[in-house]
Amino acid sequence: MNVSERSSTISYAIRDVVEYARKLESKGDKILKLNIGDPLKFDFKTPEPMVDAIVNAARSSFNGYEDSLGNTELRRVIAERESKNNGKIYLEDVVVTSGVTEGVNLVFGATLEPGDEVLVPGPGYPTYTAYATFFGATPVSYKTIEKDGWNIDVQDLKSKINERTKCIVIINPNNPTGAVYPKKTLKEILDIAIEHDVFIISDEIYDRITFDDSFVSPASMTDEVPILTFNGISKIYLAPGWRVGYMAFYNWDTLFDIKEGIMKELRARISASSICQVGAIEAYKGSEKYVVEMVSKLKQRSEFAYKRLNEIPGISTTNPMGGLYIFPKIELDNKWKDDKEFVYEFLKMKKVLLVHGSGFCPIYGKDHFRSVFLPPIETMEDAFSRLEDFMKTKK
Fold it and tell me: Pairing mode, if any, of strands 329-330 and 315-316?
């Protein structure tokens, strides 16, 4: 029996690189891992009130199946959050998912047929590319401009829309580049969506992690374009392993059949974790001091990473304005075949794990790598000093 053709197309660079690191660890090597955006791998902690809420829920026998659409109180709290920040939305327009990744799977499963196309940012989070391909569609990367802080090239995006295009994916703040898109850019994309009758997926999982308060949600700017907003507690509220995300449907009246398709999928997969949803209620209703403290710490660390990486000969980078990542450019100069070889050789020689930029887009991500700036500054200094030594050995 052969593996399905669908599953053989799946690639996820962020975790694929871990397999090689694991082989080194099995030989006794200690690896400094800067590849995954998990704050809890470093000196961040899930807020205690959230932990208490989930423990109390488990001890109170709140361990059964939850409603397929999500805990009603959690959905109500999310609807209030979205209405406050991005425009009025109602309980029936919010569903809870097992993280944003499940949301991507659900919407593409209800939307895409073989031959369809999805516009995704280049570079961008590889799950969108992986699942579009899994469902037989073609992910088409639109250009973002490094010299312009990785802002979206709107004309390039527009030139790639055709009758097969189903939706435009926006990741804001962007993973992996740290770009936060200006309102003008978002308005231009909304105009394109209206013109071509496509909907928008707006991935806003890092919406509160910005360093100049410039984040704007497309949902706050239109009452015409259908927008599916993704968000959750994994990053902002420091609970990535709880796998609680949500989808918020804005202006979805004309896409009722697709929404109902998503609801059928939700019912078929039963529900997201019941006790973790209780913890999410505490996250959204609780004190914001944890978020403020985290963002302050991350801003300091992003500034260090930006300055330190630009000091390394052969490495240059733009300044991330949000999120958890920085996306430097490598001057390969025929020393390495490509960015993937660069990352694997650096891992082998210096025991630091990064992610190759082409894993986020083979066109617009190549000759780059992604690093988190989650670790304490002394840890990053260690990693980037090893990188500087590595670059010198290849002169």
Answer: antiparallel
